[in-house]
Every structure is written in structure tokens, then in C-alpha cells.
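Service request form, structural biology core

Requester: graduate student, group of Dr. S.
Request type: structure prediction, single chain
Budget code: on file
Notes: please return the result as C-alpha cells.

Sequence provided:
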Amino acid sequence: MRQEQPLVSIIMPAYNAERHIAESIESVISQTYNNWELLITDDRSSDATQQIINEYAIKDQRIKLFINEQNGGAGVARNNSIKRANGRFIAFLDSDDLWLPQKLTKQISFMLSNNYAFTFTGYQKLESENLKGTVTPPQFTTYNKLLCSNVIGCLTAVYDSKVLGKHYMPLIRKRQDMGLWLNILKQTPKAYSIPDILALYRVDSGMTQNKFKILKWQWDLYRKVIGLGLFKTSIYFCSYAIRGFVKHKK
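Core staff response, request fulfilled:
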């Protein structure tokens, strides 16, 4: 069965993630899709994160640990793993989020059946181990649509490196996932979604809670990374902020 499945490389950054990373790794191990490799780059954690990863890597050779020479942020950690990825498909899961068991089986089948190079799925919010609201994505998004609202949850995204080549995240501290999606959408016209809820997104850890900083990083993404002028940045920023507020309230 494994030989019939294209290899999926799962990209996971980790930094002081001892509280949740075991559960995140377990959600990968529990996938009904078996042909995967989990590439975890630790961003110089000072807690037991590396020890936990090593314990899993010893038991399962599909799990691989890399360690950054110095702390560089999630984008640097993800790029380190992407560089070492051997899979046709590149998927993303952060060290505090979870996948449901059918996630890869459904998504890879969806991509192969429809010849889609870039896809994403629905997900549900998780707070203090309690399930919250669900996020149902649009049927597809494009470069211009994504500028208005990042509807692609990082924990749900998969792209086909056989079709698109390897794409890396821009070297910025935050919002690098949206920067990557926009770069991919310059090459392929649409990213398509599966509306099914296939992942759980933890909203009570890390940067998720700081909404004002997120808005600043979003402004910087438009201006400094994408290079939009002040007028266009203002339009897209207002749209993003309004839609983000609505999504947060759900």
C-alpha cells in the first residue's frame, strides 16, 4: 500500500513546544495515509522539546529532527525542513496543532484525482482542549483574493513539488505562511479546498493571542515583502482587518 502512495513531507517548526508537541506528532502517526516523513526543525528550544522529538524519532524512522544553529523564527525553521524534504507533496503542521486521522488520505486523493497542485481544507479551533468554532474555506482562492484574506490555514496546506517545484517561506518573523501562499499562487492560478474539517487549530498558545501585533506584521507583509504601494496596501489591509475580525468572532 505504501508503494502506491506518493511520499508526503510534513514540515513542522518547533520552539519550546514541550507542552503540545507529543500530541501533534501522535496526530501524524495516527494518519491512515502511511507514506510520510515528518521533518521537525527545532529553533533552539530551551525546554524538553528536543528530547521529546528524539524519543519519537528513535521509535519511528519517518520522524527526523534538525536543529537550527541559532534561533531564527518559524519561517527559517520551516525552510530548513523544506530544503531536506524528499516528498512529492509538502504539507505543514505546527507543533501545537493537530490533524484528524483521514487528513492526508482525503487531501492527497483529492489532489491526485483532480490534478490540483495546491490545496487546503477546513479546520476547527481548539482552546484549552475544548472544541470551538469551525472554519469552512471557500471552494478556491486566487492571488488577488488571498491578498484580501488569508483563507488558507497553514496546518491544512499542501502543495505538489513535482508540479510546482519547491517553494520556501520569505525570511520574515511572522506572516511568512501567507507570503509563501502568494508566491505559489503566482505560479498556479488557484488553490482549491476540501470543505471537510480535517485539522484542529490551537488558538490559546503563542502568537495567536496577540491580534494587534498580527495586524502590524500584516501591514509589513504588504509593504516590505510584497512591495505594494501605500494606496493598495491600505485597501488590502482594511479588507484583511475587517474579514479577520469577522472570522475571529465566529
